[in-house]
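Input chain follows. Return structure tokens only.
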Amino acid sequence: MTSFFTDARNVSVNELKVITVSPSVGDPLNDLASRIAPGALHDSAERCDAPKCHPETRVAVQGEIYSWIVHGDLDPAQKMVKIQWVTGPAGTGKSAIMGSVADTCKQDGVPAVTFFFSASASPDRRRKTAFIPTLAYQLAEHLPALKDLVAQAIQDKPLLFTKNLRVQMEALILTPLRHVTVESKQPGVVLVDGVDECEVEQYAGSHASPRAGESIERTKDEDQLEILEVLRDAALDPAFPFRIVIASRPERVFREFFNNESHKSWFAPPSRSGREVQPQRRHPFVPPSEVQ
């Protein structure tokens, strides 16, 4: 106190009020927004020159994918099919199909949550770090009742964004969804394109090997598989209201995942992008659509 009254004498303090000013805690939703990949959204400025299907091309595959998104629940045979794979070699129109389907959803008022990976784009579109935050941000935009729950999850777990994808999916998406009422008749979709272009996330240090003195580097296949598994877990959760469409080249990690006998009852048959890709469906997962 004396430092405030230098050289003062005979000072009497009858009542003292001390006001402490500290930095305010930031808005958790602003924190979430700062961690998304804005360029990964289908209508982002970064994707303004992205290829789109000509109105007269890829009609069959676009139509089948869109019909499955909007009307799939009306078909008892398809009601439990929640994931479809669109596949084909590089340059066969997968991204164009996904972009066009996203545009159609937007035009028709069908909620579409999107993430377009790209190895040639901004860093946050090349890795998995921003994947779940970007999905959660868009879901909260489509379902405003989620916002307070998502904000609370971020506030309760300050290190949430450093956790693996499964923990983030549970905290930011699945747990909030279990606490809100979602109109079951409202169709919606999560469109994830270019998962095969997701690069490996590098961490400080490395995984220990059983042999002393060796290290095991994480591979991009592991990160890509983590993305596939977390989407599968979401699709199988009764609280998750949207269907999921995943587009990638037919690389080994995807073939093994979608052809795994224990998964087949969850997927629709694949849609194969090409001159005219025919989406196929399996029971909760749709078989892949291949692009020729």
